[in-house]
Amino acid sequence: MRRFRGTLTTALLTAVLAGGTAGPASANAQSPPIGPLPGTAAWLTDDFTGKEPPDPATAGPREVAAFFTGLTSAQQRRIVRNHPAVVGNLDGAPVNLRYQANAHAGDQVLAYDPRGRGLIAQVAGDLENAAHVAVIVPGSDTDLATFDATARQAAVLQGEAGDDTAVIAWAGYTTPSGIGLDLATGRLAETGAERLARFTDGLDAAGLPDPSLFCHSYGSVVCGLAASDTDASDIVVMGSPGMRADGVTALGTGARIWAAKSPKDWIDRVPNVEVLGLGHGTDPTSPGFGATVLPADDVPAHDDYLAPGTSALAAFAAIARGDLR
């Protein structure tokens, strides 16, 4: 009977998330950018500073931070001018230099990689002087073409949290696109978790406060897998299909875990199981998971957790500025 239930659940989950057929799922399979960023070869051979530059593929954020600390202001300006694609995506590099390197992509852009569907991170607020930092990790169908929605959410959360809080809209991983097996598996989330952990390490190396993570939908899968490797003070999941963990203890983190799910959210119809790699496990709002459940009854839909005027947004802002513990 248990085996039958597992098979039935797998079939149901596949029907809900993969459209019931392998054709559309395969057609929508996404691939993260691979290989070095454009300009990496020139960066690695540039010795004008008299120091060997850190390899973007292997150097940790603290090594990157130490490299930039040893440069004069003139050297920093020159290295940004000569290698913007590298500096603009180098976790651990000073915030102001990353802004300068990515000036062509927009205001206060902390990362920009146009390859494929594109990756981007943009800041709302004064990150360099912030007492509190929040990072929004969006879900599926987020890329350069749709990023404005995540950037608007960051602006709303920052406005609600106040001037001493900076909010980063982090579309720094390749998300699932459309309905397909990518949405039902952790393949893209695993790569996203590595990138998110490195990104938060970079914030730490740059001397910024430990961030709170606000993870929506498939983004909560990313945050669940990254939890043990990030120094986040709080991890908030909203509209989550699961975090690929049975409970808070299994996440392996000291961060406070919060969860919100609206009764009007379609995600409530997705089976909270993980069978043969399909599904993302226990509902983080369930009593046995161990997260602190936040109000969300007035959230009108799956994509509206950060909508102005909702009780969820008020709670998120209190967490972001450190008032809710």
Automatic annotation (TrEMBL):
InterPro entries, A to Z: DUF1023 (IPR010427)
Ranges where the DUF1023 domain occurs: 113-274
Alphabetical UniProt keywords: Hydrolase, Signal
Top-level division of the source organism's lineage: Bacteria
One function term, GO molecular function aspect: hydrolase activity
Signal peptide: 1-27
Name of the featured protein: Alpha/beta hydrolase
